Every structure is written in structure tokens, then in C-alpha cells.
């Protein structure tokens, strides 16, 4: 049966209950079937033994059975009862875990016995503690009394900064359950988490129960307190119910249900705030994602997100993070193999648009439905044939026609198109030549007649546009030396010829068509538009060259520089101009230049420039640099410019401001000192054109050695007049768990080169995928 990934907060809850439970768990694991059959070996300065009866060892005594090793001042082993007794400086080690105490008695076969006043250190978490007594009641059951756990130093200099204590813990390994009585987590002597009775899993397996509470603050909702409950329904199904109190809005409930089957998986997320005191009405959201496979390569998917109102994305920005938070998808699709590389597919795509009174947006058309067939086929003689034929019904989203400020002259309709190509790729290791003939054919049936162009006054019409292209590329290589390093240099010129005749397309609907961004990929394309409804009348040659410097030993790219430009052989009449009347008479296009290097290990530099020969000025540019001289030290800056549209500067960083920076490793048993080091983290995006900060993240991290504190503020502009500000904070008890709002995702998503403090130490449970 497939298993869901482990729930991160659930793993934290398990550790927070009582990490001392790892002691008997690790002890029981020392006796797999192979180890039980292993002989008992006793060594010491003095050994007295009676064959087949017993043995007594004194002076640096050691007993080994398989991976289990016991050291003590005095050891005895009674073969009749299979009992080992150890006295004085008893020390047990296995897989880096160390246990010590004054007295141990254990039946090796049945694992019954006790350990008096043990202390322990676990290599995985680099933390440990002590207990007054451990009683072993078989291989699967153990009882710990007066146990504690911490990753702070226990050198007698004072109370540890944080300490997890419990009165008694019973561990049942067979049922993967531990029951803790009187568990208290203290931080500088102050109890911050407590439970009279607490049940938790002894492994990373999921278990139903309450998870640690989380809190956050933002300027829209005020203080927020959430107390999640995790429900482990089955190995392949679970749910999380999250009651949340918003100081300004009221009480809400969030629900997430996940499932994982052999060929299907999905999740359902629902949030409801029955009575928002700020707006006077209910606030709701629904998210559903399902994916599955059938017939080998068959695939189907449903992805739906819906919210209750237009302001939802501003008031609850973290619920459904997206690059387009105002454009919510409703997408259902299926595709099935037909034969070879051919497949058929069907899709329904409907949008929800979250309109803004000040800044309305125009949404894409709904596709209701989309049905098609596509594939490629190799033909005799080295030819390759590819084709896509598809029917679409395009309609306007409901939000378009209900808002007077949005254009309503968009014509819905049907379109059946076929796009195909026949090519003959000639490819060698040093050069390639690809002649290709392609065509774009479309037939339209519109709800209203057109008002301009060749098809003016008609609702039904069709057109076919052919294209011929010839793509030629070379790869030249040589050995070189650059700044004393052996390098491998390439020179990669490329020529691309395109010929597409002119067809009048003025006034045609633009169902799925937009102008391509002008960059190093699109400059070598045969059409300046994405989609089907527009085809550029190209007669031009694109010439470009790229050179790369590769490290001769590792093959890593140290430098890349490129240049490319189009040369028009005739005027272009189908352009990206909005009124579709402007003719492009330029003999050459804008010049593209790009470069990147990481030749110096501490630096990463990138640059891209679009230069207009017609106006002798830069049209667009991007410059960025990242400096990372060591662990937890990174500076990132970028400048983005697009003439007459935007100009932005960005700065991001993670940098220590006080104290000694650590490597992140703790190699000694509990000797990590709890001394402090402060780090500043942040990112600021400033619009030079609007003279304002558009987005920003600012925070501080404090690494105290055995605990880490984080405070992070994030501000996102939702319009020129409005912004959402969120405050997150967290305490990470190293080797145990995290409590707070988990702002780490904000730091990772927003700060290039950000590195998690102690990222080489375990910080959370793993999340394997289903087998």
C-alpha cells in the first residue's frame, strides 16, 4: 500500500513529547534476528569464566554481541539465564549513540532488566539527557522514569537554556506508541509547552493527535492563533483540521484532506470564516487537486481553486500562493495514448477573476471544451512529421461581462485548428542542419461577425498559413588557459532562416494568442506569437553566436557569452503592435547580448541587454550579482529595466552581524555551547519608476547554539495604495522541534542563496514520496 509523506508538524509533535523515548527504541533495534544468533564475546584485563556457565570480567571490561557493545569496570554474564550485569562507568554505544550509567542488568534474549541513572546522547539529533531509571519489559516495551532531554551543554555551569522533562514515559514499540505523563518543555526556566498526558509515535510514522499551536500577525487580520489537529485515517489517507482565531475577524476552520492510491493522489483544502467582523459576510475558499494515471501513459488531472470574494487574495495572501493570485484556475484534463508517440486529450478550463476597483484585469478565455490529438512520427529517409489538431469552444468568463470597466467586445466562438510540420534533421557531433516545412490552419465559427479585416462581416471563415525554415548550428571547440586554469572553450554560431507569407489577420479574435517575449529562445522561433490565432509574416535571418568556457577537470561552466540579432529581408506587416496597423520596416531587430560567469567561486554574475539600433539606446536590461564568501554569508543585487514600463532595483542578503559564525556541525557529545550569534536576512524590491518599495522581507536570526530564534516581516504590495504586511516568528530547539509560524519558507523563496542555519543537521522529518 502507498503511504502519504509524513506530516512535518506531526513529526515535531512526536519529538516534542519526549525525545528520551529514542533510548529504548534504539536499544531494541540492537537485536535484529541476525544479532540474536551472534556469539557473546567478553574481553577485559582479567576474565574468569566457567565453560557453559558464566563469565566475570574486570578492568576495562567489554561485552559484545553483534552491533551491541557494553563497557564497564566490571561485567558478568550468566549463560544459564542469558543475563548480563555491568557495574561502574557502564557505557553502551551503537551507531554513534552513547548511553552511560552506574549499573545495568539485562537479559540479552528477552530484553528484560533495568538501567540505573542512565545518561544518553543521540548522534542523529546531537542531543541527549538523563533519567533516574529505565526498565525494560521485553523487546517492545520499556518504561522511563524522571527523564529529560536537551541539546544544550550539561557541564554543571547552570540550567540548560531549554529542557524537556517528563515524570514517566511508557514506550510500546510493537504498537509504535509512547505515553508521556507530566511532559513539560522549559525555556530559560519558563514552561512554554506542557501536557499532563501525551501520546506520541516512537518513529517517524504518523499518528493522530493535536499538533503544536502556531501564531502569526498581519495588518489585515491582526493576531492569529491556530491549533491544528492531525487525523491519521489510514496509511494512505489523512486529514488536518485547523481551528483559527483571528483577533479582528473571528473564528475560522481550515481543513485539508489528503489521499494516495496506487495510481491516484490528491488533496482537498477548505477554509471557512462564517462571519468576518471586518467585512460583515462569510469568507470561504476551496482548493482541489487530483492526479492519476491509466493505460500506462494515460493521465488525468483536476485542479480547482475558488474563493468567496474579490478581496480574498489581499486578506489571506498565504492560502493559495501563486504568481497570479487574482487569476484562479478551474482545470480538468485527460490525455490517453493512441499509438506510438500519438495521444488524444480533452480539457475544460474555467477561470475565476478577482477584480479590483482601481486596477481591473482582463482574463483569458474559458475553454469549454478543448479536444485534440497530437504526436510525432519518424518517416523513412530520416524525415520527422509532427501534428496537432484541436477543437476549442472559447467563452468569456462570467466576471468579464458583469463588470462595465472590463472590455466586453471580445467575441466568443469555436475554433478548429491544425498545426503540422515536416522536417529532415541532419545532425552530427559538430554541426546540424534542419530544413522544415510547417503550416498553421484554422477554421472559425464566431458568435458575432467580425468588424474589420479581410473577413469583415463574416462569422465563419478559415485560413491556412505555410512556413519554411532552415536552422543551422555549429559547435567548435579548443583547449585554452584562462587566468592560469586549464579550460575548454566552445564557439557555437547559429543561423536561422524563416519565410512565412503575409496573410491579413486584422480583427481576428485572439483566443489564446499573445506576443512572445523577445529573448535568446524566441529569437530563433518561426513565429512572434504564442498560440494559434496570429502568425508573423517573417522573411528574415537570425544570426547569433555563443561561447562558453568549461573547466577542463570538472566540466563546470565558468563563463557564457552570447549575441544574437535578426535581419529582415522584407517588411513585416503582422506585428505585435496593439492596433495591428503598424508595419515593421526595420532592416535589423534589437540586438540581444547576454553573459554569465561563476569563474570566481565566491561570485556569480549575470547580465542581459536588449539594445535598439534604431534609437541607439537600451530597451531592456538585467544585471545581477551574488557574492557568497562563506557559510551564511550571501549578498544579492539585481537591476531590471524595461523602457517606458518599469525600472527596479533589488537587494537581498543573509549576513552575520554579531558573534561567531558556526559551521553547523556539532561533533562532541552535548558540548555545543549556547553562545549567541546574530544574523540579518532580507530582500528589498524598489521601483525607481514609482519611487516606492514594492515588496520587502526583513528579519533577524539568533543562533544560540542549542536553539535558534527567528523574526521575519514580509510586506507585499497589492496595489499602489495598499499592501499586506505579515510578521512571523519561530523558536527552533535544536535536536527537538520548532514552535511558531515557520518563516523559513518565506526566507527560502525570497532570498537567493539563503542557507538554513545548521542545514547539515536534521531539522525536520523527511517526506519520502510514495513507492
From TrEMBL:
Residues in LPS-assembly protein LptD central domain copies: 182-262
Keyword annotations of the record: Cell outer membrane, Membrane, Signal
Cellular compartments annotated: Cell outer membrane
Domain LptD C-terminal positions: 288-651
Domain of life: Bacteria
Chief localization: membrane
Signal peptide: 1-28
Keyword flag Cytoplasm: no
InterPro entries in alphabetical order: LipoPS_assembly_LptD (IPR020889), LptD (IPR050218), LptD_2 (IPR045659), LptD_C (IPR007543)
Subunit structure: Component of the lipopolysaccharide transport and assembly complex. Interacts with LptE and LptA.
Function: Together with LptE, is involved in the assembly of lipopolysaccharide (LPS) at the surface of the outer membrane.
PANTHER family in the record: LPS-ASSEMBLY PROTEIN, LPS-ASSEMBLY PROTEIN LPTD
UniProt similarity note: Belongs to the LptD family.
The name this protein goes by in its record: LPS-assembly protein LptD
Organism: Piscinibacter gummiphilus
This protein's encoding gene: lptD
